[in-house]
Amino acid sequence: MDEYRTLQEVSQGLYKEKGSKFIAIAIPVDSVDEVRLQLEQFRKHYHDARHHCYAYRLGEEPHEVRYNDDGEPSGTAGKPIFGQIQSFELTNVLIVVIRYFGGVKLGTGGLIQAYRTAAKAAIEHGRIITKTWKALLEIRYDYLQMNDVMRVIKDEGLRIIHQESRGQSCILLEIRKGNLETVIRKFSSLEKLECTVI
């Protein structure tokens, strides 16, 4: 399977309990660097909040996973947030739950419920979409092979990301992962052509 479920855009949820406010924000992300940038921005924007707890899942199996309680009792924030990412079978998503403390302690069960409910609300207020995993394929070929190369690109409906024609010609293509083997086989049948998956 080369398909995955993620969110189309940023969405938000809110949960209130005994004066505490839990603002949950679900964000589609594609890399750890993007996650770090988002977390940094949320910490600045909600600088007066007591906790900035989060969970994310990235990539294909085995997924890259991380969750953080940010000072809440161990297992009461990050794990319940991550549980919702799992329940909705999402990947390439980050959920941050910002807590403004209301003065009354909620206890372990109360915290788990609050973080889980806020994260769920953020997902439910968003739009879940199905996307496909992509691969990048670099093709190096002689200029005289241009017509053959373009025929494969057209037949397979491939997207050209970059193209160069100095000396040896080079094209960078975006390909649905499920079609990668077929496309490589077609290109490999052409003589003096190099195929490299990036």
Offer a concise description of the structure.
By secondary structure, the chain is of the alpha+beta class. It has helices at 32-45, 78-87, 107-124, 146-156, 180-188, and strands spanning 3-7, 11-17, 20-28, 51-58, 64-68, 93-100, 128-132, 134-141, 159-164, 169-176, 194-197.
The second-level CATH architecture of the largest domain is 2-Layer Sandwich
Roughly what fraction of the amino acids lie in strands?
35-45%
- Could you name the CATH topology of the largest domain? Ribosomal Protein S5, domain 2
Q: Please give the largest β-sheet.
A: 5 strands, antiparallel
The succession of helices and strands, N to C, reads: EEEHEEHEHEEHEEHE
Task: Label the structural class.
Answer: alpha+beta
Mean pLDDT level: 94
CATH superfamily of the largest domain: Impact, N-terminal domain
Low-confidence stretches: none
Tally of individual helices: 5
Strand order of the largest sheet: 2-3-6-4-5
Overall morphology: elongated
Q: What is the CATH class of the largest domain?
A: Alpha Beta
Number of spatially distinct domains: 2
What does this structure look like?
- The strands form 3 sheets. This protein has a 5-stranded antiparallel sheet, sandwiched between helices.
- The protein contains 5 helices and 11 strands; from the N terminus they run E-E-E-H-E-E-H-E-H-E-E-H-E-E-H-E.
- It folds into 2 domains: 3-131, Impact, N-terminal domain (Ribosomal Protein S5, domain 2), CATH 3.30.230; 133-197, 2-Layer Sandwich (Alpha-Beta Plaits).
- The mean pLDDT is 94.
- By secondary structure, the chain is an alpha+beta fold.
- Helix 2 (78-87) packs parallel to helix 3.
- It starts with a strand and ends with a strand.
